Amino acid sequence: MSKNVLRSTFLDTLPVMAGYVFLGMGFGILMQQNGFGFLWAMAMSLFVYAGSMQFVAVGLLSGGAGLVTTALTTLLVNARHLFYGLSMVKAYQGAGRKKPYLIFALTDETYSLVSVARPPEGVDRQSYCLMVSALDQLYWLAGTALGSLAGAWLPINFQGIDFALTALFVTIFVDQWLSAKDHFPAAAGVAATAVCLLIFGRDLFLIPSMAAIVLILTAARKRREENG
Question: Can you tell me the distance from the alpha carbon of 183 to that of 160, in angstroms, rounded to the nearest whole number?
């Protein structure tokens, strides 16, 4: 891998780095505040690497949640991966030894980059996606390490640090809205989520809203293909 390729990939992932370092710090601090040390925080970011679910897991671990509760909560929080992961099946087909890690590292922010990947000249798409995925996780690990150390050594009240997750999703949404010409998918997602939130409540709206978004976008795509 040449320096130019690495530099190009690094520049592409800068927006994710800006969010992941600070978001990872929030997770590391939260782990420290709940009695989990540096090694626990790093192990979770290395082997679990689930973003929002890691924040939720802190409460589950500190509250002594059972295995069934943890499994169901994980399914609900990460159900969105079932939907957008399907769109990468063809892209990752034939990835060989790269595929397990590409699947494991497909976070929301990584997906936003690899789904519209534009590899540098001379680099195949799957190798580029692998570099993007690895760099994004390195940013998350770096943030986790900094946050865990800060939570252990700095005499600061970090209450409300978990709001960083919400801020990151808002930032990504705004960036994609400004860069995209077609705002229908984003508008459909917001509308479907709002309706499902009103109908099902905040504890149960996630899966219905994801299903509604898939149905809306699928119907819209078929209509556009029929209209040429």
Answer: 32
DSSP state of 13: T
Q: Looking up tokens 């409460």, which residue turns up?
A: 59
Close Cβ partners of 77 (under 8 Å, ≥ 6 residues apart): 50, 52, 53, 56, 206
Using DSSP's 3-state secondary structure scheme, residue 183 falls into: coil
Both tokens assigned to 28: 């590391």
DSSP secondary structure, 103-133, as one string: HHT--HHHHHHHTT--PPTT--HHHHHHHHH
Based on C-alpha coordinates, what's the Rg of the chain? 19
Give me 223's structure tokens: 């209509």
Cα Dmax for the chain: 62
Return d(Cα 182, Cα 173) in angstroms, integer: 13
Question: Among 49, 53, 65, 61, which residue's Cα sits nearest to residue 101?
Answer: 49
CA–CA distance, 105 with 100 (Å, rounded to integer): 9
Predicted TM-score (pTM) above 0.90 = no
Q: pLDDT of 173-217, one tens digit each?
A: 787 788 778 888 888 889 998 999 999 987 778 778 878 887 888
| CA–CA gap between residue 103 and residue 223 (Å, rounded) | 31
**Cβ pair 131, 6 in contact under 8 A:** yes
CB 108, CB 172: distance < 8 Å: yes
Q: What is the token pair recorded at 112?
A: 């936003």
